[in-house]
Amino acid sequence: MTKEKWYTHGKTTGWNKENKATTRRRKLLATTDKRKTLHNRYLEAARRIQALANVNQDPETQRKAKADADYFFRMARRHK
Fold first, then answer.
1. What is the DSSP string of 48-67?
2. How many CB atoms lie within 10 A of CB 45?
3. How deeply is 3 buried, as exposed, middle or buried, from its count of CB atoms within 10 A (0-12, 13-18, 19+)?
4. Alpha helices in the chain (DSSP H)
5. Cα(47)–Cα(30) distance, rounded to whole angstroms?
6. What confidence tens digit (pLDDT) does each residue in 31-64 have?
7. Among 45, 38, 39, which residue's Cα sits nearest to residue 15?
8. What is the pTM of this model?
9. What is the pLDDT of residues 18-27, one digit of tens each?
10. Closest C-alpha among 76, 52, 47, 75 to residue 64
């Protein structure tokens, strides 16, 4: 019996749990729409990685993705 994957993401970000936090976050922010304000780019990155944290089964990936999402939400509040 194979598992059906029901979650598909819109864009490949290059995010990998083995990378350092700064590398993961830099790659994620680089995939956001450059025409948006910095506040909105942080929100876009946070929502994208939060979606990964919500659907993933691997505890390590969930923990790191949640930490990155929290970081981007925090940065968005700072750049309002």
1. HHHHHHHH---HHHHHHHHH
2. 26
3. exposed
4. 21-30, 38-55, 59-78
5. 14
6. 999 999 999 999 999 999 999 999 888 999 999 9
7. 45
8. 0.87
9. 999 999 999 9
10. 52
